[in-house]
Amino acid sequence: MPRLMNGAELAGEIVERAAKRAASFLEKTGRKPCLATVLVGDDPASVTYVRMKQRRCAGAGVESRHVQLPAATTTAEAVAQVRELSEDPAVDGILVQHPVPAHVDERAVFEAIAPGKDVDGVTMHSFAAMALGEPGFLSCTPGGILRLLDAHGVEIEGKHAVVIGRSPILGKPAALLLLARNATVTVCHSRTADLKAVVRTADIVVAAVGKPEFVRGEWLKPGAAVVDAGYNPGNVGDVDFKSAEPVAGWLTPVPGGVGPTTIAVLLEQTVEAAWEGNSTPR
């Protein structure tokens, strides 16, 4: 029976600390830290995620400003809106909800976010900072994954980590952050030969492939720490929990694992952005 990596408990601790810093910011500046969310279109899952983030903002003492754009919004219009938020001194962090409609150039919209307000860690500036070990905001889900591993005493240095998935906002930054912690990292994807054999060598598995219950227990090395970064219809992740449970040493539940830590890191980085963008002494 694996030990579960409880993201909800860890997230509560992160948000509690962020809320104290947000209250201090309010006391010193007269305003709350502000997170602006931008949603293009009305994808039901995205709408739900944004509402959830707004509720979590309220609980952390962070102001939430929501910008809803029509599904027909062009790339140029979305970029202009994000640039306006970037130039607004009352906005500390900007989150562009992923995914955007297919006709919108998501990368162009991301790059309109000022680096100091990229609290979701999606710009090229943030990616380069993660790669080079320079100061900057982390991609929230990968950042939350490392916090989960650390909080549960999972050793990273010297271990073989396999990341399944290479998206620019999850798989790739997760690999960079693990590499920075001295893990030996293999990134797998749809063209990887004999994926099962590669996963079998991993001490740490990060499943970020976007396919329900894709990773099976028989693929796993006994005792491996398994992080399920997927969320699919039916409240299931990218790992088949039932078959992984007897094999894994550590395992994240879905829901209740990676998701809560992602939002907690987002709020923490928003508060940090507020302090960094304000000249008031701490």
From TrEMBL:
This protein's UniProt keywords: Amino-acid biosynthesis, Histidine biosynthesis, Hydrolase, Methionine biosynthesis, Multifunctional enzyme, NADP, One-carbon metabolism, Oxidoreductase, Purine biosynthesis
Reaction catalyzed: (6R)-5,10-methenyltetrahydrofolate + H2O = (6R)-10-formyltetrahydrofolate + H(+); (6R)-5,10-methylene-5,6,7,8-tetrahydrofolate + NADP(+) = (6R)-5,10-methenyltetrahydrofolate + NADPH
UniProt: NADP(+) binding residues: G165, R166, S167
Domain Tetrahydrofolate dehydrogenase/cyclohydrolase catalytic: 5-120
Domain spans labelled Tetrahydrofolate dehydrogenase/cyclohydrolase NAD(P)-binding: 139-274
Pathway in which the depicted protein is active: One-carbon metabolism; tetrahydrofolate interconversion
The keyword Nucleus belongs to this UniProt entry's keyword annotation: no
One Pfam family of this chain: THF_DHG_CYH_C
Domain of life of the organism encoding this protein: Bacteria
CDD domains: NAD_bind_m-THF_DH_Cyclohyd
EC number: 1.5.1.5, 3.5.4.9
Single GO BP term: L-histidine biosynthetic process
Key word Oxidoreductase present: yes
Gene Ontology molecular function terms on file: methenyltetrahydrofolate cyclohydrolase activity; methylenetetrahydrofolate dehydrogenase (NADP+) activity
GO cellular component: cytosol
HAMAP family documented for this protein: THF_DHG_CYH
Subunit structure: Homodimer.
Role summary: Catalyzes the oxidation of 5,10-methylenetetrahydrofolate to 5,10-methenyltetrahydrofolate and then the hydrolysis of 5,10-methenyltetrahydrofolate to 10-formyltetrahydrofolate.
Family, similarity comment: Belongs to the tetrahydrofolate dehydrogenase/cyclohydrolase family.
Stated name of the protein: Bifunctional protein FolD
Origin species: Amycolatopsis bartoniae
Gene that encodes it: folD
